[in-house]
């Protein structure tokens, strides 16, 4: 059983540490570490990976699925978008 997510799925920077059992990325971990060291850190919000699990669970990852979403890897694919073509390729075997 996964841990309960915060009310809106976001972790507020005022929490001293991310809730146990939730997956946060390296940037969030670094910000929490800087705060523990007493350095000034601007306010931030963390979206744990578990928030995306239900969204990603229904998405197909075949080349046809990616092409149907306009997310297939090719020259210029994903340009200007976060996650772009590199992430799509990783979902279908890292090609």
TrEMBL record:
Q: Which InterPro entries match?
A: ATP_grasp_subdomain_1
Q: What Gene3D superfamilies does this protein's entry cite?
A: ATP-grasp fold, A domain
Q: Biased composition, Gly residues: where in the chain? A: 71-86
Residue numbers spanned by region Disordered: 67-95
Q: What is this protein called?
A: Pyruvate phosphate dikinase AMP/ATP-binding domain-containing protein
């Amino acid at each position: 059983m996964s841990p309960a997510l915060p009310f809106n799925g976001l972790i507020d920077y005022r929490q001293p540490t991310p809730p146990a059992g939730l997956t946060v990325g390296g940037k969030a971990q670094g910000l929490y570490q800087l705060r523990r060291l007493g350095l000034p850190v601007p306010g931030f919000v963390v979206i744990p990976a578990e928030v995306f699990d239900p969204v990603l669970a229904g998405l197909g990852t075949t080349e046809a699925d990616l092409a149907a979403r306009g997310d297939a890897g090719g020259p210029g694919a994903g340009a200007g978008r976060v996650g772009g073509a590199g992430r799509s390729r990783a979902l279908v075997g890292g090609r």
